[in-house]
Amino acid sequence: MLRSLGSTPMQVSAVAMGCWPIAGMTSLNVTREQSLSTLRAARESGINFFDTAYCYGPDGESERMIGEVLGAERDEVVIATKAGISWNPDGSRRLDAKPETIKRHFRESCRRLGAERVDLFYLHAPDPGLPIEDSAGAFRELYDEQQVRAVGVSNVSLEQLRAFDQVCPVHCVQPPYNMLQREIERDLLPWCHERDIAVCVYWPLLKGLLAGKLPRDHVFAPQDGRAKYPMFQGEQWQRNQDLVDDLRPIAGELGCSVATLVVAWTIGQPNITTALCGAKRPDQIQESAAAMSLQLDESVRNKIAAALSRRGEVVSRGAV
To answer: Residues near 313 by Cβ (< 8 Å), separated by ≥ 6?
Structure first.
């Protein structure tokens, strides 16, 4: 299942592999061998779109592994990476999207990937100390010099997207989106659709919450960052578990897992180009990729809509 990446000539799979987990920074029990196997399993499952970033790993481990596994297939795959976020010596996150930083991140990412240019290059997040137009200028230079085939922005408001687009053409936007976080349907999605801008969403499984694998009495390990989010606590957690329980029989009737059903719903939503599905094991990306072969008819979509209605009001954008 290949789709046009907005107005670009590139064709991408409706399910992409999100390559943050293979870096092992917040995901538990990640090994290099398993990460490499997961990348290979993604290709074998029909995925040709891989999403990484300069900061995925203390020293770009995610980009390096992508280069190692997919370097010989550069003409058959689309690789997206991002610039503007890195790590301080103490492990804290640094938002720096100054033009010189963007260009330095670009050069280092190319070296790690073993590539002369980048297929899709994102601003990872706006720099709060800098007008977004300044960051856009660096992307415009790289695009005009044909060092990047397409430009994207991630984690931006519609106002920021418009400002960036005034300086540099935007080909792809990457926001969070899933059954419980659908705010972009009100503004960002219509705006992008009118301009033929691709929308590649992350968190389709909401950090695994919608995968149907976490029991109600699950106890998060101390190192598991999900425990700090409201959606994994108290009443919100119980309501989300009720939703997953409502989805189980629907998935059962289709002979698929809850995760596959949820991803299929996501890539079937109007104006969604691709769902970025994180994975650290082959079976996880295989389960997500199976959604590309699953067609949801009107009766199934009505059942899902009823389950979402019972779940109740969704949370605000970005609040997990």
So the answer is: none
Write down the catalytic residue from 56, 122, 177, 202: 56
Q: Cα separation of 297 and 300, whole Å?
A: 5
Q: What is the DSSP string of 226-247?
A: GGGSGGGSHHHHHHHHHHHHHH
191-242 pLDDT, tens digit each: 999 999 999 999 999 999 999 999 999 999 887 888 899 999 999 999 999 9
Distances from the Cα of 146 to the Cαs of 142, 143, 153, 161, 283, in angstroms?
A: 6, 5, 18, 22, 37
Residue 143 annotated among the catalytic residues of the structure = no
pLDDT, one tens digit per residue, over 136-148 is 999 999 999 999 9
Three-state secondary-structure class, residue 2:
strand
pLDDT digits (tens, 9 = 90+) for 78-120: 999 999 999 999 989 999 999 999 999 999 999 999 999 999 9
Taking the CA atoms of 219, 222, 226 and 227 in sequence, report the sign of the dihedral they define. Answer: positive
Structure token pair of residue 213: 């694998």
Alpha-carbon gap, residue 212 to 131, rounded angstroms: 41
Domain 2-209+259-295 class in CATH: alpha beta
Residue with tokens 């919450």: 209
At residue 318, the pLDDT reads 45
